[in-house]
Fold this sequence. Notes:
This protein is of the alpha+beta class and 208 residues long. The chain is built from five helices and five strands; from the N terminus they run H-H-E-H-E-E-H-E-E-H.
Amino acid sequence: MASDKKKEKDGGAAAPEAPANPSRLKTLYDEQIGAELGEKFGRTNVMSRPKLEKIILNVNMGRHLENNKIPPNVKATVIDTLTTVTGQKPTVITARKSVSNFKVREGAETAVRVTLRRDHMWHFLDRLINLATPRIKDFRGLSEKSFDAGGNYSMGLTEQGVFPEIDMAKVNFTHGMNINMVFSNSSPELSRHILERLGMPFRKRENE
């Protein structure tokens, strides 16, 4: 029961069954990258090594508010997008307080969020790296400046159509999303090394 409540808080309804096959990225991390962290960064103790804990996808719907409500078609499109690309039902987030400058009242639905963990997280990351990012228009690599002090990485997509499972001919409007990768026991340098080894297409540094 407690586990189900936590899932509802983090990412919507209880997660569906995990993918049948283990993610190749998780296997790569376990069999190769983990050992590299020990050799290159001195993290010989397995428990001290960085770990990708979760990936959070968030879509802000505040700009679509009409009389403090989100139009049903907008809400349905966003929920359908996140459900399709993650395999989990997202949670609708409401405003905690009123903001007069943005004409937002407390309790208004402002965003949709889903949190991925374990196998769902690894399989999503694989599709994000190898299927979605190459489809970004005029793509020249992801910024490496979006790490925070704890090594967590954030990126944004301007349209849901970069995921091949989304048929843009069947959606009502185009929307983007924010994607946050949350690490533990990490730093910007360590997280960048892990993501780069997993195939994350960062923009090449000038001195390289």
